[in-house]
Design brief:
The protein is of the alpha/beta class. It is built from seven helices and seven strands. The strands form two sheets. A five-stranded parallel beta sheet has the order 2-5-1-6-7. A two-stranded antiparallel ribbon has the order 3-4. This is Uridine kinase.
Length: about 180
Amino acid sequence: MDDRRVAELAATLHAAPATAGGARLVTIDGYSGSGKTDLAGRLADAIGAPVITLEDLYPGWAGLADAVPLAVEWIAAPLAAGRPARWRRWDWVRCARGEWVSLAPAAVVLLEGCGAGAAALRPYTSTAIWVDVPVEQRERRLRARADWPGYAPHRQQWAAQENAFYRADRTRERADLVVDNGD
């Protein structure tokens, strides 16, 4: 995605109405390899917003759906109430919850990761972004990532979770913005 498109998205996010608590919770969702993390980083740089990644919440490789209620309880609901978000990071090495992390309310907070645009988070969301990329390109991107060797053994399990979750949740259909992030 070019810099002009990122600037346009940033302007759109600033123009969106704030939710309760005065924050604008922006969710960035899409299948693995679609470029959610990269887009979140670029938007964060453009608007000076903090980014929370759902990778901190998934309770292991089978935890995509389990992370959504945690995101509501630990991040979205507190921010909507004007309180700090506070979550316990998942330690991927120990396969257990790690330290607590806090984030004070901000004008815009970006929540990125598979499941970020879930129906349960929509009441707290100012803008929901879905990142679209063709399957073949996503798979190519995943295999080119530095963390691919650790991810590869879990790819089929994670992909099955994504497919089941997105089919049931209809996340893409409810997105406010669909971003084509293909080459």
